[in-house]
User: Fold this.
Amino acid sequence: MLEIKKHTENEYLTLEIQGDIDASSSIHLDAAMEEALGQNPGAILIDASHLEYISSAGLGVFMSYIQELENKNISLVFYGMSEKVKNVFQILGLDQLLTITETAEDAKRIANEL
Amino acid sequence: MLVVLDLVLLFSNMNNMKSGIRSELPHLLLSLFFVFLFIYYRYIIGKAETVNFIDLLWRVFVTGLLATIVSLAISFLFVLLGNNKISENALLINFFYHINLGLIAAFLISTFVVWKRLILYQKTRKLLLTWQVFEYSLMASILFNFLNFRLLDTSFIVLLVLLVVMGLILSFNLKWVAYLNFKQKWKSILLILLVILYLWYFLINLFNFSTKYVLVNDLLNNIFILALFGFIFLYAVISLLVILFNLPTSSVFEQKLEEVINFQRLSQSIQTGQNEDQVYDILLDSSVSAVFASAAWLELDPSAATPKNRKILFNLDELDCERVQATIEKSKLRLSVTDSIGQSNTSQFSGALKDSSFRSVLIMPLLVKGNETGRLVLLKDVADGFDKEMIDIIGTFVNQACVSIENFQLLNDALKNERYQEELKIAQRVQRSLLPDALDSNPDFDIIAFSEAADEVGGDYYDTYRISPTKIAVVIGDVSGKGTSAAFHMSQMKGIFHSLSQLDMGSKNFLIQANDALSRCLEKSSFITLSYFIIDSESRSVEFARAGHCPTLLYQAANNTADYFQNKGLGLGILRNENFSKYVFVNSFQYQAGDIVVLYTDGITEARNPSLEEFGVERLRKIVQDNHALEAKQIQEQIIQELYAHCGHNVLNDDYTVLVIKFK
Assistant:
């Protein structure tokens, strides 16, 4: 039960994630990330406002792209995350490596600054 | 058999000599002889298990040949002794006549039994009944001999005609003819012609005897024999004509039969353990022979499960194939409006082709699990070479092949799944074995752990290590991912834990070293969350660091509160360089009697009830707060009990581990 919508606006590529990311659906997330990176956008924004749940496998997907994003100089910014999901990122410490903001506007602004 | 025959004959002759004693006796013996022959042949011929028509006819032919040779020899003897007085000897004439008679009877009856087998091939109940009436009537006619009627008596004629008419009706059962192939038909014609020849010869022979000599027991007066003659002759003639007229159409029947056999091969190919390639081979062969295609190829799509774009060619080479393919594409565009037959699927195509060597083409797509996995292309050197019938049969072949392949793939999937399940079981065993049987402890605290794995293998890990008599390292961790790879990473973690702990390097260095080691061996998307504790009984203090693992819950007896440590930390394997050290934070606290540390994995806090409500950290905190007076074991039991109560019958789909340390 995972749906990923992709839309591009200027240099921002937004992935709108809806539903749960568990071990099995993380494969789709991985494919979507791979595809997004392939387009070489200025920044990838993750709209997590409809992300209900993320398992360690899902976190692993984001984690596995950190190095590549850095190499390609693409910034990755999350926004709209629920408290619960944000907590998962925080426990693992990913909030220290990834940029998590509140709104799409914040995300765009921060993506530019990075 | 012949010995008995001769004995009977001789006996019969002896009786003839003493004629006048009893006139019924020779009849009786003759009848017994007939019945004996009848039973004998029925037994011999009926024994043949498989129906091989040519063999049956061959048997008739051989019997006839033997009878004819002997009979010819006798005639020759008569010619030799022609003018001799001996030939006038009634006894001798009768003796030879009886040998003749016996042979002819044997031939007739054996042929009769063979005819019976042929007529009753694919019998119906009605046919069987008619046949039985006929057979019993014939048997009855043996008895009729006792009445001693002469040839040409009215009742004799009536009965004879009746039997022959019955025979004629039965003679139109010739289903076996259809099952002969072209060659067999020619053989049958030859054999049946010979049978007719024998019949004619025997009849002439009998007439000769009958007219030339005075016979004690004239066979021509025997209604049974005459009826047999009539019946066998009729059936022979009718079969002959039917076979003759069937000759031109036999190829069609053979074709159909071959189609059925090919169809069967396709459908059975999976059971016989053949692989996909063999199914494709059979499909191509069958299709080519079914429509007499001059050339064909089968191409398999690269996107399917097959490794590469493969082609199986028949009667043309790669270059030809490419040329034809290009031509087809052109023709298809032009003709798709008029000639395409695919209503339901557009890639099916049949039409004319403007090519140097081929004039018409039939393309049939291969659909496996609803996806087009390839196509079969048949070519012919004549225009309009594929009629509706052919397209249908090819469609059936292709369907059957696809079903076979689909089944094959399903079977493979099932096997793969089974193997996967087996692997999981092994991984589960490995994982269990990685968890310690007993935990190290010191007199000033109790430690108890509980861990349960979900259906699949998870990656919950906990362990202890005695660094020194007063120092014990405790670890709890969760390996991301599931299945065999999780178990594998967990075993790496265990190795790292045991080797680094003995170096007594402190929790910060432990995490940095562990991250360094894991960075080299973890998969790109894998990480391990961990909390590492060193309990020092001498200073009654705990030093710990958290690497992305769930916050530690601590109950302090001094202020009677349970709370989580809110320190930062980063999972192992996430940042695979020296920067990781920036994210390691060490905590420490002094413990007192009654203090409780609860370690757990996210399987506990993220466990959801049917309405998707998580167990959560607050519930866990409250349990510890409320039950702080209990022993470590009881607190652990309380937590698990409440966890089950929360989830209800909802199956837990993650591993869950809880570890309780209570200080004294």
